[in-house]
Write a structure and sequence with these properties.
342 residues; mainly alpha; 3 domains; 14 helices
């Protein structure tokens, strides 16, 4: 049985002190405690508040000791892999920079530049999420890292879908923000008073409504539905990330995506199975960090990011691109091997 938390100790101590001086039965004492509860809480706060602050700022408190131990184990077992992972992500960031610098000078139409800007934005966000995964892994949060890969996978699929189709689909993707803003505005208006926030003015809502009306007139009513921006590629009833995966040949990751979703949603699988627990630890209640479970999020992150970067590099058939890709593949393998050997 675990030792009582220091706040629990303080409550127990205060109750014991009152019980010692109280003359009466246990039931009478319970009534006394309930009557005096506000004053007891006030006294308790006076005694514990300083202790709470001291604990919170103590560099050697229980939480920080545990985190330090976990970080030491991770650095010992995965330190080289994390350093290689940093370099791998940096290489992918450089692909974004190089691609933009090169093609923004070549593409001279608004449509081509819009498509390039959109693809670059998706790739840049993917690099940021890769860094988030790196930080989560470095600090012992395998399940959190896997949930971030889920988002990275969606970015990868969207990136490939837009890349494979003409510029009109990119324009529809960008224009879909009008639909998303309208949906968010409606939800905001319904809940802002409860949140103690100001409502949109009548004029602001009319503007948002008019923008929605304009895009629906341009593309049709189906554009306002979920994934409406895919309507010219995907048939009605099949406009979703699963169908997009099939078109861009990423559906082999569907089962992994489903596993990763368990760390996002509240299904029972997500509370019964934790990636960050070893088999012999399955009955543990994991509330924080652990030094286990990093191979899957690292492996799938490197695959998704490499897929996106490779797409950019394939835009030019040059020695530079071919050699850069080989370095990227080699570093990806090294990263995965480092995490797989533990």
């Amino acid at each position: 049985m675990s030792e009582p938390y220091f706040i629990e100790k303080g409550i127990q101590r205060l109750i014991s002190e009152n019980r010692k001086v109280f003359k009466g039965t246990e039931s009478e004492f319970d009534e006394y405690i309930n009557e005096k509860l506000p004053k007891i809480i006030e006294k308790l706060l006076q005694g514990i508040w300083d202790g709470l602050y001291e604990y919170s700022f103590d560099k050697e408190n229980d939480l920080r000791k545990h985190q330090k131990e976990i970080n030491e184990k991770i650095n010992k077992n995965y330190g080289n892999g994390i350093l290689l992972l940093e370099s791998f992500i940096e290489m992918n960031c450089q692909v974004s920079i190089s691609t933009y610098d090169k093609y923004i000078k070549i593409f001279d139409t608004y449509e081509d530049q819009l498509k390039l800007d959109t693809l670059i934005s998706l790739h840049v966000r993917a690099c940021q999420i890769a860094n988030e995964i790196r930080v989560l892994v470095s600090n012992g949060y395998a399940d959190g890292a896997m949930s971030r890969w889920r988002t990275l996978h969606e970015l990868c699929v969207t990136f490939l879908f837009l890349y494979d189709n003409d510029t009109k689909i990119t324009e529809m993707y960008q224009d879909y923000h009008v639909i998303e803003r309208w949906k968010k505005a409606k939800e905001y208006q319904e809940n802002c008073e409860f949140l103690d926030m100001d409502k949109f003015s009548k004029e602001e809502m009319e503007f948002i409504e008019s923008e929605r009306k304009d895009v629906l007139e341009e593309y049709g009513k189906e554009f306002g539905q979920s994934y409406g921006w895919t309507m010219e590629i995907l048939p009605k009833g099949r406009r979703n990330i699963r169908e997009m995966e099939k078109l861009v040949k990423q559906d082999h990751h569907r089962v992994v995506y489903t596993w990763a979703s368990e760390n996002v949603h509240s299904g029972v699988s997500g509370i019964n199975k934790r990636l960050g627990l070893r088999e012999e630890q399955e009955n543990f209640l994991l509330t924080g960090a652990n030094d286990y479970g990093f191979l899957d999020p690292v492996q799938y992150m490197t695959v998704s990011l490499t897929t996106m970067s490779e797409t950019f590099l394939n835009m030019e058939d040059s020695s530079m691109s071919r050699i850069f890709k080989e370095f990227l593949y080699a570093l990806q393998n090294e990263v995965v091997n480092e995490f797989g050997e533990q």
